[in-house]
Write a structure and sequence with these properties.
By secondary structure, the chain is α+β, with helices and mostly antiparallel strands. The protein has helices at residues 39-61, 99-110, 113-117; strands spanning 4-10, 13-18, 21-25, 69-76, 84-92, 125-129, 137-141, 147-149. It has three domains: 1-36; 37-119, GMP Synthetase, Chain A, domain 3 (2-Layer Sandwich); 124-150, no CATH class. It is built from three helices and eight strands; from the N terminus they run E-E-E-H-E-E-H-H-E-E-E. The strands form three sheets. The chain has a three-stranded antiparallel beta sheet with strand order 1-2-3, with no helix packed on it. The protein has a three-stranded antiparallel beta sheet with strand order 6-7-8, with no helix packed on it. Strands 4-5 form a two-stranded antiparallel ribbon. Helix 1 (39-61) crosses helix 2 (99-110).
Amino acid sequence: MAHMTVRHIDADAFVIGIRQHEVLIDQRSADGGDMGPSPVELFVASLAGCAAHYAHRYLRDHGLEEGLAVECDWLMRAGTPHAVGSVRLRVVTPTPLSHQQQHGLLAAIDACTVQNSIRPPLPAVSVTIDDGSGPPLVVEETLHHAANVV
């Protein structure tokens, strides 16, 4: 299983250690120090970045000019729980593509691992609370967000 650690550094700011990389996250200046993207922005950036990666590979593997850009807009869902409600990606290619190439590029982007991870079946998420005072509390979350305490 892959591993990362998120450590609190100040106010609402955290540093995420992933392999040999560190990513700083925070809240916008209205809610935090704006020292980095928010967790939601990083989540949406993961979708856009994954789409860009798969699009780049498609263009490269088909001998098409590289140098694309992926623009991304998103809206939060109204109400609770707070969640991203919609994401719109716009893939800008450096040169025109044929109809067949456009569909091939779309199929490549549709294979994005991040996008696949938020489609059913959704990943299982479990949370362990370990405060050092005794056996940890383990909560296994089902697909429908009903918590089962173990």
